[in-house]
Amino acid sequence: MEDKILQIMEYAKMNSGQFAHAIGVSQGAMSNYVNKGRTPSGEVLVSILNNFPDINPDWLMLGKGEMLRKTGAPSPAPRPTDGTYDLFSAPSAPVVKPEIPTEGTKTHEFRKEIDVKTTVNSVQPIVQEIVTPRETPTRKIDRIMVFYSNQTHESFVPEK
């Protein structure tokens, strides 16, 4: 698996830190996959496939076929996982402007208004409770018994 990850990193022109960030794992985990031969979890493999759609899943998971999918159009660049991916600048379907109702046009509202009740937190007075320990009667030693490993015992009684 480490060879496949290295091939994907080379294909994406990324170092291990960049690749780890792109698929959402720590650099330590990445080091385990590449240097120590640990097998990534299914979640990590799915993240690789989601972030690098050119990669053939059969090749990555089963070792069958070519590394890249056979498609005519190049796939988009991997999406960054740090929230910098701009959803609105990505190529998408043409924008359809909704009709703005004017006076005289009938509109249908499908929304349901929900009454939200807000609670007011009132200030509670501070209750101070003083805890006093219970008085226990003084205890005196009545006797001490010592048990030995040879199944014998001795009993010691203090002098009064």
Describe it for me?
This protein has a two-stranded antiparallel ribbon. Helix 2 packs across helix 3 (27-35). With 160 residues, it is mainly alpha-helical. The protein is built from five helices and two strands, in the order αααααββ. The chain has helices at residues 2-12, 16-23, 27-35, 42-51, 57-62; strands spanning 144-147, 153-156. 9% of the residues are buried.
Quote the beta fraction. 5-15%
- Determine the mean pLDDT: 76
Helical content, roughly? 25-40%
Main-sheet strand order equals 1-2
**Distance separating the two termini:** 81 Å
Helix/strand class? mainly alpha
- What is the tally of helical segments? 5
- Give me the Rg, rounded: 36 Å
Overall spatial form: elongated
Number of strands: 2
| SSE run | HHHHHEE
For the largest beta-sheet, the strand count, sense and barrel status come to: 2 strands, antiparallel
Instruction: Enumerate the spans where pLDDT stays under 50 for 5 or more consecutive residues.
Output: none
Structure in a nutshell:
The chain is built from 5 helices and 2 strands; from the N terminus they run H-H-H-H-H-E-E. It is mostly helical and 160 residues long. Strand 1 and strand 2 (153-156) form a beta hairpin.
Write the layout of secondary structure elements.
Layout lengths: L1 H11 L3 H8 L3 H9 L6 H10 L5 H6 L81 E4 L5 E4 L4
Antiparallel strand pairs: 1-2
Helix pairs in contact: 2-3
Keywords:
160 residues; 28% helix; mainly alpha; 5 helices; single chain; 2 strands; two-stranded antiparallel sheet
